[in-house]
Each structure stands twice: as C-alpha cells, then as structure tokens.
Amino acid sequence: MNVSISEFRQHLPQYLKQVQQGKEIQIANRGKVIARLVPDEQVAKQQKALEKLLAWQKHITMDDVVNTSDLATWSHDKDNL
C-alpha cells in the first residue's frame, strides 16, 4: 500500500495497526517511494502463534494432570495390565 507522507502522518495509528497485522506500507514523497514500513518477523510469528492458541482453545480442554486427590484409590494400573 502506498501513502503520502502527509497521509501517513495524519493516520499514523491506523497505519501502524495495519503493519502490526502483517501489511507493508510504502511511504511516498511526491509520488516517489522513500521508505517501507514492514512488520517485525518475530512479532508476526508471535501473533500467529497466539492466534493458533486462541483458536485451539475452543476445541481443547485442559485438566490438572498433577492432581493427587485420587492416589489413595488408584490401583497403579494393575487392572489395566
């Protein structure tokens, strides 16, 4: 996406948000591109990982795997061998 310097200045927060979402912004002065604003790869990877975790959260249930309250009645898997 190409934007002029004045347009970029006026809407800086919106353009930074777009870059955060993975878009590249090219800043132009009198029609000539003078700079590119690109997302940080590390931040982009972290954002994608977070989005995956949030999507999985809808389908996965986590339980306490270290709960020791049932150890007194646990048969040490003798019945499952």
From TrEMBL:
GO terms for molecular function: toxin sequestering activity. It holds the Pfam family PhdYeFM_antitox. InterPro entries: Antitoxin_Phd/YefM, phD-YefM_TA_antitoxins, YefM-like_sf. Belongs to the phD/YefM antitoxin family. PANTHER family: ANTITOXIN VAPB46, ANTITOXIN VAPB49-RELATED-RELATED. Antitoxin component of a type II toxin-antitoxin (TA) system. This is Antitoxin.
